[in-house]
Amino acid sequence: MKVNIQAVNFNVDRKLxxxxxxxxxxxxxxxxxxxxxxxxxxxENTSDKENKSVDIIVKIxxxxxxxxxxxxxxxxxxxxxxxxxxxxxxxxxxxxKTY
Length: 99
Fold this sequence. Notes:
The chain is of the alpha+beta class. The protein is built from 2 helices and 4 strands, in the order E-H-E-E-E-H. Strands 1-2-3-4 form a 4-stranded mixed beta sheet, covered by helices on one side. Helix 1 packs parallel to helix 2 (74-97). The longest helix has 24 residues, at 74-97. 18% of the residues are buried.
């Protein structure tokens, strides 16, 4: 499984890349046929404190799962996105098992 991280209009430090990789690697436990993951990091132009946006696209055979989360930090948004993806992957696996 390959994780592609893309940052819009800023450079990502190594610590954030390592955090995202380690958090998203755990998704393999829930669904073993993940082909790849694309992560897009963006800072929104608003006066809100919650202006860090993370888009995560998980590529699985037959479909892509997309989650978009916004939080105060990229770590928090990634964590919330990974939690949502865990639930989606478990649902997908249950759906496949019924056939």
